[in-house]
Design brief:
The protein is mostly helical. It is built from five helices and no strands. It has one domain. Helix 4 packs antiparallel against helix 5.
Length: 97
């Protein structure tokens, strides 16, 4: 029985990981639209649909987000690694700065 419980722990941890595409990108699309999305006036300079750009501009983004939106982005930024396959704009083997 102990063996089965130990196997369940990594599944819970993995499920709690925040994803750029499913958690952060929708927040930015809702709060930073239309300027930082494709076609917006600031998109060429700061395209917020790319994970590496968001990580590189975290202070400014966090300063503008409030409540749960801020917590979601902070959690994603605080995680030790990012999954390139799931994170738009990441490169293989990239980790947070």
């Amino acid at each position: 029985m102990r063996f089965l419980l130990l196997l369940a722990v990594p599944l819970v941890v993995a499920a709690a990981q925040t994803s750029f595409d499913t958690d952060v990108k929708p927040v930015l699309a809702r709060t930073c639209t239309p300027c930082h999305q494709p076609g917006g006036q600031m998109y060429e300079k700061l395209p917020f649909d790319k994970a590496d750009v968001v990580r590189g501009n975290k202070e400014g983004i966090l300063r503008r987000l409030k409540g749960e939106d801020n917590k979601t982005v902070e959690k994603w930024l605080a995680e030790a690694t990012f999954e390139p396959a799931r994170d738009s704009g990441s490169t293989p083997g990239s980790a947070r700065p």
